[in-house]
Amino acid sequence: MKKFKRTTVTAALPYANGPLHIGHVAGAYLPADTYVRYLRLRGDDIVFICGSDEHGVAITLGAKKEGVSPKAFVDKYHNLMKKAFQDFGIGFDIYSRTSQPVHYETAQEFFKTIYDQGIFLEETSDQYYDEQEGIFLADRYITGTCPKCGNTNAYGDQCEKCGTSLSPRELINPRSTVSGNTPVLKPTKHWYFPLDKYESWLKEWIVEGHKDDWKTNVYGQCKSWIDQGLQPRSITRDLAWGIPVPLAEGKGKVLYVWFDAPIGYISATKELKPNDWQKYWQDNDTRLIHFIGKDNIVFHCVIFPSMLKAAGKYILPDNVPANEFLNLEGEKISTSRNHAVWLHEYLEDFPGRRDELRYTLTSISPETKDADFTWKDYQSKVNSELSAILGNFVNRVMVLTWKYFDGKVPSAHELPGTNDHRKRILEKYQQAHNDLNASVKEMISALDDFRFREAQFQMMNLCRIGNKFLADTEPWKLAKEDMEAVSCILSYALTVVGNIAIACEPFLPDTAQNIKKQLNSTGIDTGWNAFWKKAELIEPLPESHQLGKAELLFRNIEDEEIEKQINKLKKPKAVEEVKPESAVKPLKETITIDDFTKLDIRVGTILTAEKMEKSDKLLKFTIDTGIDKRTVLSGIAKHYTPEEMVGKQVTLIANLAPRKMMGIESQGMILMAEDADGKLRLLQPNEAVNPGATVS
RNA sequence: GGCGCGGUAGCUCAGGUGGUUAGAGCGUUGGAUUCAUAACCCAAAGGUCGGGGGUUCAACUCCCCCCCGCGCUACCA
Q1: For A424-483, what is each residue's pLDDT tens digit?
Q2: Which long-range contacts (CB under 8 A, 24 or more apart) does A574-580 make?
Q3: Is the CB of A470 under 7 A from strand B?
Q4: CA–C1' span, A537 to B36, in Å?
Q5: pTM surpassing 0.95?
Q6: Cα–Cα distance between A136 and A176 in angstroms, integer?
Q7: What CATH number does the domain containing A99 carry?
Q8: A239 and A174, same structural domain?
Q9: Distance A369 CA to B69 C1' (A)
Q10: Which nucleotide is nearest to A472 (CA to C1')?
Q11: 20 to 30 Å CA-CA from A657: which of A18, A218, A235, A689?
Q12: Together in a domain, A209 and A308
């Protein structure tokens, strides 16, 4: 394995359209922070980079919804996230944002560098432009008359009636479905990144080169993508919010958010290290690590590396330890349903208990598969692991030392094995020492491999071994007969406590500080980091050193506290505060009664229902419409089973042009209500009517 | 439907290249103990290793089929 001189660690740039929840934390930021703390303790040269991702359509839509400017919108969430990270103790070297001037420059320069080599594909096409809204219209936001069959409601990409695929420009009398106005044709040019040209290189670099050192979920996902064949991706958009395309002919266009966002890592590094940022991005002795969630794998493993490769000079990620997702109480975390534990709310509800959340999230870290956070687990981990094992061990050693030695580190001289109980103590000491060193080694090796769950477990193991050592040697019994032995036992127990203070720092930084405070070790801890390089116990405390007061490290979580949290999940938020996405769709353009009467809406009865072969969404029905019995396909397989549909009355558009799907012609469209979560429900008359009943 | 990743004790998870009684932590039960937040220590019970075939002297570990979870993807008019 290659030896690197320094490491650049990035954590996914969170999108600035909502607050952070524990899923974000467990997925990327906590493992990244743990890893970075470990590297720092080891004394490595490292930068830890993050920031808010602030561009893209979703931001402009969110801003519109809140009735503020995009800038004001991202300011709000950027500040919220930045504060939450800070309060939680994620130790970024910099938390920047993609609206920074330095990022504009960097992203534009990056674009230019690739552009100047003639790598981008350019494609100019006339596209419809809505002058009232000031936007270019995507194909399906345009309707008009089909040139082939005269259907007046053909879409920009396809005519429903005759089934031919169209381009918007073929439509006669096009209309914008956004404003209802007639759009004008304007030429627009876009730039494409030829991902396909990097296919063979990606195969070599990932499929062959990282077969063994990348996580299986990451590797599999990449391989799947590469094997499916890559295509050029457009990297510019006609949008007002974003980074302007740095070309004369790119006026009014911006870089696609996915293009500019990862460059944000580089910009933030520049901001942090204006003079030698290149060291962290363009030196082959630097190791680049991206911490992300699984939704970001393709971007960080395939697209961004290809961009870096195209730009030249840049190093490529050495590893991308992506996590899977975190569920909450058995269900997916959902922003719109407010089924989430928000980081800033946790910090308010559990002040001074950051390590408790860190510990729980690391112990269930979704490293190999989706994981589930439950408040009961949280309580159990805090009470029976942190408190009972770690907190208790440190406390009993402290208390014993105060009791027998007035809080001074006792002498650790050789204990002559002159009698049976002393021989036993020596034996137990030897066993503990071997076990402890084995755990330290395993912990460090797990940290090196991004196996944080295991690493943290080994850290706790130090406490378990410590507890066992005390139980095996029973210094409280020996106090009456052999203080020399007690002295040796407690001296060693304190050594273990000191090493725990060191070992727990990547996982439980506050606890590390608390233990150090109790040990009163400020000033004598200069050599402590040798622990990480030697990967074995060090001797942290000199003889006669005066300890601080014993205090409990953790307080148990009571049932009421978690009940409160569970109840909180059950209620949707009363006040609109954390619901960026669930808004109601805007009203469509006004139509006339004539438009409406063109529709022939009927009630029909479902006679038969079956699942379509090879389709996840389509169900195939025979419907008695009163007039005829016809075949209708509908994409509701995720919401209804065929069995429960038979016999039901449904509303359908009976005069919709037939349309072929997966080889079968559908003669009509069943009407469904769709709620904010995308759940579909049937529209039915509230009492049975005869098949063929009209709707008006 | 295609592709990818998972499905191991009540819970969270380990189990290179197949080989004696499948492991750990938490939980449960019993015991011991009192320095400690009834904590700690010891012990026990708990698993047809998603299901079914196959290869093999031998499979949790290899092959095939199926089921379930998650993700990407096609089909949602």
Answers
A1: 899 999 999 999 999 999 999 999 999 999 999 999 999 999 999 999 999 999 998 899
A2: A578/A18, A578/A19, A578/A335, A578/A338, A578/A340, A578/A342, A579/A335, A579/A336, A579/A338, A580/A17, A580/A18, A580/A62, A580/A65, A580/A335
A3: yes
A4: 24
A5: no
A6: 10
A7: 3.40.50.620
A8: yes
A9: 10
A10: B41
A11: A689
A12: no
In angstroms, how far is B60 C1' from A246 CA? 58
A394 and A523, same domain (yes or no): yes
Give the Cα separation of A51 and A261 in Å (integer): 10
Q: End of a domain among A534, A562, A585?
A: A534
Mean pLDDT (whole number) for A401-425: 87
The total of structural domains in chain A comes to 4
Residue A185: per-residue pLDDT: 77
Do A184 and A295 fall into the same domain? Answer: no
Point out the least confidently predicted range of A4-8, A182-186, A597-601: A182-186
CB A242 within 8 A of CB A235: no
Look at residue A313 and tell me if it is in a domain.
yes
Q: Are A257 and A56 in contact (CB under 8 A)?
A: yes
Average pLDDT over residues A585-606: 82
Which residues from 372-411 of A have any strand B atom under 7 Å from their CB? 372, 377, 380, 384-385, 387-389, 391-392, 395-396, 399-400, 403
CATH of the domain at A498: 1.10.730.10
Is residue A181's beta carbon less than 7 angstroms from any atom in nucleic acid strand B? no
pLDDT at A583 over 50: no
User: What are the two backbone dihedrals, phi and then psi, of residue A72, each rounded to the nearest 5 degrees?
Assistant: -65, -35
A78 pLDDT band (50/70/90 cuts)? very high
Q: Based on the fold, state whether residues A520 and A660 are members of the same structural domain.
A: no
Judged by C1' against the alpha carbon of A217, the nearest nucleotide is B5
Between CA A652 and CA A618 the distance in angstroms is 16
CB A374 within 8 A of CB A360: no
Mean pLDDT of A94-102: 96
- pLDDT, tens digit (0-9, with 9 covering 90-100), for A376-400: 999 999 999 999 999 999 999 999 9
- A189 CB neighbours strand B below 7 A: no
- As ranges, strand B nucleotides with an atom below 7 A of a protein CB are 1, 3-7, 11-14, 25-27, 34-37, 39-42, 69-77
Q: Is the CB of A477 under 7 A from strand B?
A: yes
CB within 7 A of strand B (chain A, 658-687): 659, 661-662, 666, 669-670
- Closest-approach nucleotide to residue A374, Cα vs C1': B11
Domain extent for A62: 6-111+258-323
The residue among A193, A223, A250 that closes a domain is A250
CB A339 within 8 A of CB A4: no
